[in-house]
Design a protein that fits this description.
142 residues, 6-stranded mixed β-sheet, 42% strand, Immunoglobulin-like, alpha+beta, 11 strands, 5-stranded antiparallel β-sheet
Length: 142
């Protein structure tokens, strides 16, 4: 009797576990997402900058990213970073407005989470009028 009860309990648990929702995990064969900056590296206007990133998976635009956030900081001071959430525009293009208070060289890193993957490419942004010595100093450090 005890053995039948144990067998019935185990079969019941197995049957119920088959009905539970399974979390989707990315397939190892899934093509990686790629992110390309669509913004110009040099911006002369400090108040009307639009940060743009194009998110693709193979030839398909990614229009369902869970998160696209631009992190911006002065190139020599990462602790001063600010985050700017992007919104979906079209055809895999995500945009976020940016207004800077002073000219300088900034680093922009876009954090993209989509389809079970996370990528974080970084690009410099030259905002406003920058002296040749500032550019040389930046290039030496990078």
């Amino acid at each position: 009797m005890k053995q039948r009860w144990l067998t019935a309990t185990v079969l019941g648990v197995v049957a119920l576990s088959g009905c539970s929702e399974k979390e989707e995990t990315p397939s190892l064969s899934a093509e990686a997402i790629e992110v390309a900056f669509e913004m110009a590296e040099e911006q002369l206007e400090l108040e009307n900058i639009v940060l743009e990133a194009k998110v693709m998976q193979g030839d398909e635009p990614v229009d369902d990213a869970e998160e696209v956030v631009f992190e911006v900081w002065p190139y020599d001071d990462r602790e001063e970073s600010e985050f700017h959430e992007a919104s979906y525009a079209e055809s895999g293009l995500y945009q976020a407005p940016l207004a800077l208070e002073e000219a300088g060289i900034y680093m922009v890193q876009v954090h993209v989470t989509a389809r079970g993957m996370h990528v974080m490419p970084t690009q410099p942004l030259f905002a406003g009028e920058i002296s040749e010595s500032e550019i040389e100093q930046f290039e030496e450090g990078n």
